Fold this sequence. Notes:
By secondary structure, this protein is mainly alpha-helical. Helices cover about 60% and strands about 5% of the residues. The chain contains six helices and two strands, in the order βααβαααα.
Amino acid sequence: MPLEHIRLTQTARDQLITLKRRTGIAHWNVLCRWALCRSLAEPAVPPAVRLALDSNVEMTWRVFAGNHGDELWALLRYRCHQDGLSLDDETLAQQFRLHLHRGVGYLVGDPRVTDIAGLASLALAKPPAA
Length: 130
């Protein structure tokens, strides 16, 4: 994987703390996987913003992905292909960061995510319209 270490912005860290409190999910990596998947489900391309990876939250790809590394990476590659983006390592790494951070923002801002049942309900909801 071109991403060995994943670091978050201070804003994402603060949002994850809120999500941990709401859902009772104690591990950053689990919430980050939810966030990545939430963003990948959104039809719009994430905005190309410069991320200041300035928090003390850092994890390896292996910790982030757990046993789902190949599947998550394949989903990201497929999404980049669908969006007409290059599949080089730099583009994939940048898109991963953008999707991860956008997904954290979506989760913390979603009024349904007030507890773990609300988070789980996202998996059962209809996907956003294209």
